[in-house]
Design goal:
Layout lengths: L1 E5 L17 H8 L3 E4 L1 H4 L9 E4 L3 H5 L4 E4 L6 H17 L2 E6 L10 E3 L7 E3 L3 H8 L4 E3 H12 L1
Parallel strand pairs: 1-2, 1-5, 5-8
Antiparallel strand pairs: 3-4, 6-7
Helix pairs in contact: 4-5
Bound molecules: iron/sulfur cluster (SF4).
The site of iron/sulfur cluster has 12 residues, from helix 2.
């Protein structure tokens, strides 16, 4: 069994702007060797840096079911790339026998429970990103970075 994690949380510079979302707790987790870093947007074929995207018209589940699209800030439709990245991640999760996936909140790929609303105004709405939705739909346990850290804090207090 293993755990997959959004690569940007462990310090990999795979964020749309070429940066990362490093948190010391996740960097420490990476050192244990039990987590496998993945970036669905890179796995889908996007380069880094890249133009940021948001889900327009719904959630990640709506994207998978054809009711919403993933659109870049400059209005390109990148839906198929996001779906490909989600399936590549699912494939890796299955190969690694992952029993947990820790994903970065609010991302149109990785968001778990929270995503941006598609207006590029940083307004947050309830919902999953495309990868989080696909993993959940396939019975894999997904937790956001925030919830994971909160649970760790409660466990340690
Ligand atoms: Fe991080 Fe996920 Fe965005 Fe990649 S797709 S940069 S792993 S939040």
């Amino acid at each position: 069994m293993s755990t997959l994690i959004s690569a940007c949380l462990t310090g990999v510079n795979c964020k749309y702007n070429g940066g990362n979302n490093l948190h010391p707790a996740f960097a420490a987790l990476l050192k244990t060797g039990i987590v496998v870093p993945i970036c669905p947007e890179q796995l889908g074929g996007l380069s880094t840096p890249r133009i940021s995207s948001e889900i327009v018209g719904g959630t990640g589940l709506d994207v998978l079911e054809g009711r919403a699209r993933v659109i870049t800030r400059d209005n390109q439709d990148v839906t198929e790339i996001y779906i490909k990245g989600a399936y590549e991640t699912l494939n890796i999760a299955r190969k690694c026998l992952a029993d947990l996936v820790i994903l970065k909140n609010c991302s149109p790929s990785c968001g778990e429970g929270k995503i941006y609303d598609g207006t590029f105004t940083r307004r947050i709405v309830p919902g999953d990103g495309v990868t989080a939705a696909l993993l959940k739909d396939n019975g894999i346990t997904v937790i956001s970075d925030e919830d994971f850290l909160e649970k760790q804090k409660q466990g340690g207090s």
